[in-house]
UniProtKB/TrEMBL annotation:
This is NAD-dependent protein deacylase. It catalyses: N(6)-acetyl-L-lysyl-[protein] + NAD(+) + H2O = 2''-O-acetyl-ADP-D-ribose + nicotinamide + L-lysyl-[protein]; N(6)-succinyl-L-lysyl-[protein] + NAD(+) + H2O = 2''-O-succinyl-ADP-D-ribose + nicotinamide + L-lysyl-[protein]. Belongs to the sirtuin family. Class III subfamily. HAMAP family: Sirtuin_ClassIII (MF_01121). The gene is cobB. Residues 1-229 form the Deacetylase sirtuin-type domain. The keyword Metal-binding applies. Substrate binds at Y52, R55. It comes from Nocardioides gansuensis.
Length: 229
């Protein structure tokens, strides 16, 4: 069985990673439009670099939870028949044991050189304009997809959704496109669809089945069902 799993902020929230928009509409005290657009970066690059430097530096203080570890167990069992795509920029899936993760919105622990287009691994600061390891240019920015930019590898994601027999969305709001439309792509090809979310998402009605509750309970239980066959 070919399975596509989409994860969002809700799967990392129980590890202590703040969701993108809290109830006040802010992301860790910042208006997302001030730290997550190309225009914001052009207007105040230091503010944007410091924001992501702080997010990157905070990663070691959070740990993968039972949902991340359960998906790693599923990958071990299904191998290439599992495609895990995440909207998250943290590295909790990898630290939870997953080895093949498609980060459609980029990664905090990577930089993007706008001069040579390389995307080196990066764990330090970017605010002081370090040189690119490839070309030496001080043109590195966070390798994070901002509003108005195209998510990474949409062609690959679309191919996987068309081939899927089961599509599962976990911890997503169902409000951010293109990810919110994945359920429609999968359904159009005859895949079964399942939502696992803390509460009904904006697109919950479009799924064949929906289960609601904490990711650390729902995801391990679902993985156990799949592995039990």
């Amino acid at each position: 069985m070919r399975v596509v799993v989409l994860t969002g902020a809700g799967i990392s929230a129980e590890s202590g990673v703040p969701t993108f928009r809290d109830s006040d509409g802010l992301w860790e005290g910042h208006d997302p439009m001030m730290v997550a657009t190309p225009e914001a970066f052009a207007a105040d690059p230091d503010l944007v670099q410091r924001f992501y430097d702080e997010r990157r530096a905070a990663l070691p203080r959070v740990q993968p939870n039972a949902a991340h570890r359960a998906l790693a167990r599923l990958e071990e069992a299904l191998g290439d028949d599992l495609f895990l795509v995440t909207q998250n920029v943290d590295d909790l899936h990898e630290r939870g044991g997953s080895r093949r993760v498609h980060h459609m919105h980029g990664r905090l622990r990577a930089a993007w050189c706008t001069s040579c287009d390389q995307r080196p691994e990066w764990t330090g600061s970017l605010v002081d304009r370090p040189g690119c390891p490839g070309c030496g240019s001080p043109s590195l920015r966070p390798d994070v997809v901002w509003f108005g930019e195209m998510p990474h590898g949409m062609d690959v994601i679309e191919q996987e959704l068309w081939a899927a027999e089961l599509f599962v969305s976990m911890g997503t709001s169902g409000a951010v496109y293109p990810a919110a439309g994945f359920v429609h792509w999968a359904s159009a090809n005859g895949a079964r669809t399942l939502e696992l979310n803390l509460e009904p998402s904006d697109g919950s009605a479009h799924f064949d089945q929906a289960r609601h509750g904490p990711a650390t309970e729902l995801v391990p239980a679902w993985v156990d069902e799949v592995l039990a066959g």
